[in-house]
Amino acid sequence: MFKLTLRVAMDVQLSNRTRIAVDAMGVTLDEPISNQPVIIAGLPMYNEEETIGTVIRRTSKFVDQVVCVDDGSSDSSARIAEKCGATVERHRFNRGYGGALKTIFNVARKNNADILITLDSDGQHNPADIPALIEPILAGEADIVIGSRFIDGGNSVDMPAYRKLGIKVITAASNLSSELGIKDTQSGFRAFSRNALERLRFNSEGMELSLEIFEDAREKNLAIKEVPTVIRYDVPKGSRFTAISHGFSILSYAMISLSQKKPFLVLGLPGAGLLATGAAMGMRAINSVGNITEVTVGPGLTAAWIGVLGISLIATGVVLQSARSILRLLIVNEFGID
User: Fold this and answer.
1) Which of 84, 206, 272, 301 places its Cα 20 to 30 Å from the Cα of 102?
2) Is residue 149 part of a domain?
3) What is the pLDDT of residues 285-327, one digit of tens each?
4) Does residue 179 sit within a domain?
């Protein structure tokens, strides 16, 4: 545990917000003031005038700076955020969750943040959990910490069953690709260390960025840890994404990523299933030849094209898997990148 002893004589007064965040973990401080962590909270914001003020005030108790990214809002969200003391960055049009997070990361880097907290501006996340979220980073145990609903101690209040099922499916697909074993890949309540801020890079503008971050983190050997939190679904607005649109975009990304990393699994296994189905249909068509008057070409042709499709998928999966292995070997040998 990150143990520090309270420094009585200080030439410069410690930020009250940082002190509250660290004290909430039950530890005290014994570091020169210049070594104290700079903690920034980033909130993507889109038409959240009903909740943004409350979220900023609650979050400000635990961080040094709150940064809100107004992602093309048409209401008074930005004006309310500024009046509540937040730094507001504006997008001229709605770029999406990924676009907002890119801006938050850029601002955090420019302000030399040691820890970045991301949370939703609709009140679903509890800012009082920020100390628990940053503790593994301060202790040097993790570069990315996730506030998880699905580990011991975590929970989700009034979460619809269909949404929980969708998150489980997306998480399973993501873990097949990344092999990270994360329980809650869709939680937006996260903490990032300075190392993660400096090394993470991502391209997505939409919700699929939530998975892309983990893919990049795995490639760069960044340590990821989950801590329990409670996420509420009984807030005034909740997610502005429907379960179908949200789930489809993220699951599509997860499957594309999986097909790139494990093409034989994604293409070869379905191909083998189609080939087996085609073979069974073909045998049935052959067995019906005994009665000439009842023979039709339909079942035979169907069996043929299903079998050919299955063989094609198997071949494609094998070729892509081999190509990926060869490219990886060349990259390791030539550039020393693993």
Assistant:
1) 84
2) yes
3) 655 655 555 555 556 566 666 766 767 766 666 665 555 555 5
4) yes
